[in-house]
Amino acid sequence: MESNNFDIQEELKKLPGRPGVYIMHDEKDHIIYVGKAISLKNRVRQYFQSSRNKGVKIEQMVTHIRRFEYIVTDSELEALVLECNLIKEHRPKYNTMLMDDKAYPFIKVTTGEPFPRVILARRMVKDKARYFGPYTSTQAVRDTIDLIHKLYHVRSCRRNLPRDIGNERPCLNYHIKQCDAPCQGYISQEEYRKRIDEVIRFLNGNYDSILKELEEKMEAASEALEFERAIEYREQINSVKKVAQKQKITDSSGEDRDVLAAASEGEDAVVQVFFIRGGRLIGRDHFYLRISKGETTPEILDSFIKQYYAGTPYIPGELMLQADVEEHELLETWLTAKRGQKVSLRIPKKGTKEKLVELAAENARLVLSKDKERLKREEGRTIGAVKEIAALLGTGEIVRMEAYDISNTNGFESVGSMVVYEKGKPKRNDYRKFKIKGIKGADDYGSMREVLTRRFTHGLKEREENSEMGKFTAFPDLILMDGGKGQVNVALEVLDSLHLNIPVCGMVKDDHHRTRGLYYQNEEIPIDRTSEAFHLITRIQDEAHRFAIEYHRQLRGKGQVHSILDDIEGIGPARRKALMRRYLSLDDIRAASVEELTQIPSMNERAAESVYKFFH
Q1: DSSP characters for 534-556?
Q2: Is residue 326 predicted with pLDDT exceeding 50?
Q3: Which residues fall within 8 angstroms of residue 297, CB to CB, at 6 or more apart?
Q4: Which of 61, 86, 103 is the last residue of a domain?
Q5: Are 345 and 332 in contact (CB under 8 A)?
Q6: Which one, of 179, 204, 207, lies nearest residue 115 by Cα?
Q7: Domain count of the chain?
Q8: What gap in Å lies between CA 514 and CA 504, rounded to an integer?
């Protein structure tokens, strides 16, 4: 989704009055701010109301917003945890980076021990314990753990049991009837395990019986005029209710999975994908599909899985689906082969996983209903534009395009950029930078030859090693060169030497450095400047150039770029200054003969020959 066609005032009208997270993007589509809201409609609108006092930082941030997106959640708690996950993942420029796991405690049941404990944990690690949470109220967690001790009489000590049974006297918790003293052997391991099973059922959400019991005790205490005890029961009830506000945004299993759900209307469908990594929901994407009328949700998901996971470089170990697909086992086998490890398709029927799938489905329905027209325009600018390019060139289907550019300063410290577009959208995770190693001077053709050779040699090596996760494994359907015949021929030479057959197209510029046509198979193909294909080519060209310049500036900022004359043997500061006084540019120095160079003060014949040989 790019910002060109995003009408902020129009999109503000479509915001739902639901809790959720909003994500602000700038003109380069970078995420610059993530926030949460009880009501997305009310909160996001505030940013664009001139009458409100927003503060200098937010005022500045608002001037850079070109579009926003949002994810609805079922509660403010879920919005809070999702906000934290997204901030940690994307580190937006205008967020205060103070989010920390310590703000979100877990309840940990040490099920790997013979006599498990129930304790508060600040972070979730991969061990044999069961984790519940995270929760937003540390005090509520502590109160709930205290309540568990009172209700189920499980231990809180650190004694090594059963090794230390009988070594010491029972602690105070035994005497106040909050522990049945497994340290003394007063309760068997089997009976104790039954208590832990009840604790886990309680933490899994079976609160009704306990809440009913506490409410009865509170009423009884109140009727007996034992108001302090009644208040204690009331506080315990409130603690349980806070913990009972379960959330789905973080999963205690810590696994990687994708959550897929679809919404459809007529010939339009949207598939929403939630990306869960390390047990945390870190992002989402939605995909617009053109379908046949009457196509079912399983059919939509089946088609989407085949197309999406055929091209994505990473496949998680589990896909959670809204509905089962007909070729369930076949798709599992295919995905497992692509990943190199087991991949499972799951259709959750209950619990938080089912709720998470429902949340994805609800977000898909919102996207379809609110963004239907915009998505159609977006499809024209992306997939439609790619189809136009394929038709112009007469190639087959194009999914992945790679564009390359070279940047240098007076021929020194040349760098190369590779940008990737899939289905007409930038795929920034696949962008690559190259620091030119084997070429000296301003040799764009030589630099490009090195970049392409390194890129496709790496790719072939990764393919030989069956590396599904390699940086260069995926090959493009079309290569775009930032130039005409010369650059295209360099690319074709490299591909031919590596026995690769990939179409190569040049982006030919006019005298004003604007793209005027495409150079393909030894002929220049004119392109309509008003077409979506032309606009996409221009965006790709600008992006390749921007990425190369950005990398070059990084190197220059590190002090790694200096005058090319410093690299000529025998040329020190005095001779370099003399050369620059005599000649206005490096091109003039390159054009000078040895005889002309020797006429410069302080330049002897040996130094002049060194300069001449360097440039020739």
Answers
A1: HHHHHHHHHHHHHHHHHHHHHHH
A2: yes
A3: 262, 264, 322, 323
A4: 103
A5: yes
A6: 179
A7: 5
A8: 19
The CA distance from 454 to 471, in Å, is 12
What tokens were used for 379?
A: 């499809």
| Placement of tokens 């915009």 in the chain | 374
DSSP β-bridge partners for residue 212: none
The reply to whether 74 and 147 lie within a common domain is no
Residue 250 lies in a domain: no
Output the pLDDT for position 132.
Answer: 78
Take residue 196 and report the two structure tokens written for it: 């832990």
**Long-range contacts at 325-331 (CB < 8 A, ≥ 24 apart):** 325/298, 325/301, 326/298, 326/299, 326/302, 327/302, 331/302, 331/305, 331/306
CB contact at 8 A, 400 and 311? yes
Supply 537's token pair. 């080519």
- Residue that finishes a domain, picked among 381, 402, 424: 381
Whether 1 is covered by a domain: the verdict is no
Q: Which pLDDT score is estimated for 282?
A: 76
The pairs formed by 10-15 with CB atoms below 8 angstroms and a separation of 24 or more are 11/67, 11/68, 12/44, 12/45, 12/48, 14/370, 14/371, 15/40, 15/41, 15/44, 15/45, 15/70
Sign, Cα dihedral of 164, 166, 171, 177: positive
**Using one digit for the tens of pLDDT, what is the confidence trace for 33-44?**
998 899 999 999
State the pLDDT at residue 247.
Answer: 55
Which residues form the domain of 285?
A: 257-381
CA distance 8 to 565: 51
| 475 vs 54, residue with greater confidence | 475
251 within domain boundaries: no
Question: Could you identify the residue written with the tokens 């950005």?
Answer: 550
Tell whether 202 and 327 lie within a shared domain: no
Query: Is 218:234 a contact under the CB 8 Å cutoff?
Result: yes
Q: What is the pLDDT of residues 161-211, one digit of tens each?
A: 988 888 888 888 888 888 999 998 899 999 999 999 888 888 776 777 778
User: With contact defined as beta carbons under 8 Å apart, do 544 and 432 qualify?
Assistant: no
Compute the distance between CA of residue 60 and CA of residue 47 in angstroms, rounded to an integer. Answer: 11
Query: Is 145 contained in some domain?
Result: yes
Parallel, antiparallel, or unpaired: how do β-strands 478-481 and 400-409 relate?
parallel
Judged by DSSP in three states, 244 sits in helix
> Is the pTM here over 0.70, yes or no?
no
